[in-house]
User: Fold this.
Amino acid sequence: MYMQDISTQLQKGKARDVKQLVQEALDAGISPVQILNEGLIHGMSVIGGKFKNNEVFVPEVLIAARAMNAGLEILRPALVLAGTKSRGKAIICTVQGDLHDIGKNLVKMMIEGQGVDVVDLGVDIDSDTVVEAIRVHQPNVVCLSALLTTTMMNQKAIIDAIRKAGLRDRVRILVGGAPVTAQFATEIGADGYTADAASAAEAVLSFLKV
Ligand code: B1M
Assistant:
């Protein structure tokens, strides 16, 4: 019931209703992972399919995305372990030319949920910004998200820039996003690839060896 309603209201872009329903579902004792997968991600998948078939267009997808991010914010405390001692630090961004941030936000939340500090650089982030952020924040792990076939090569550009700056051996690099594959990750010199946010958090922990 809640799951269907969350999915439907998300598809309609009703951020306030999505927030309220997510809170009600949590209060009713439904697990945050179930709300995430069967409510929020389900709704966004339906929108994604309609977008592909030209049944809805960018404005509808954008307001659905806002509703998704609003719902994620309500889920955040339930997904993130409160008061855990920091196990390390990661920086995360969506690469240059790419404005998709829902997957990145989810990956960030899951990593934080494992007690790792995450510095979020945002979307449309170029190589220089990542290199500078490594110098400033001294992370153990760099997480790069790309949702477009046209921007996934910018993951390579960032990895190349990190190497050129002499920082490659200081960080482990994880890449992901819908068009990215394990083979691509190997080809561009990343240390890891995962298909989803929960596995991304596991990969980060394995990099930190905790
Ligand atoms: Co865009 N878009 N979009 N879009 N959009 C896609 C990606 C697309 C597949 C839709 C389609 O045509 N079927 C298509 C890409 C096609 C391609 O490249 N082959 C596309 C396109 C074409 C575009 C535009 C070019 C459209 C246009 O303007 N004509 C444009 C580009 C803008 C830009 O970035 N420069 C555009 C714009 C937009 C909106 C702004 C409207 C909006 C984004 C809003 C936002 O993010 N705030 C949007 C959306 C929402 C989508 C779809 C519908 C949904 C993406 C999403 O959030 N999914 C998407 C279609 C689809 O994916 N079905 C689509 C939910 C999210 C939880 O999943 O991000 O895949 P995802 O993240 C997953 C995994 O990939 C993984 O974990 C997450 C979940 O567990 N993951 C990682 C992600 N990052 C990771 C990093 C990791 C590890 C795992 O390690 C570091």
User: Anything to note?
Assistant: Residues 176 and 195 are 6 Å apart (CA to CA). The chain has two domains: 2-81, 89-209. The chain has nine helices and five strands.
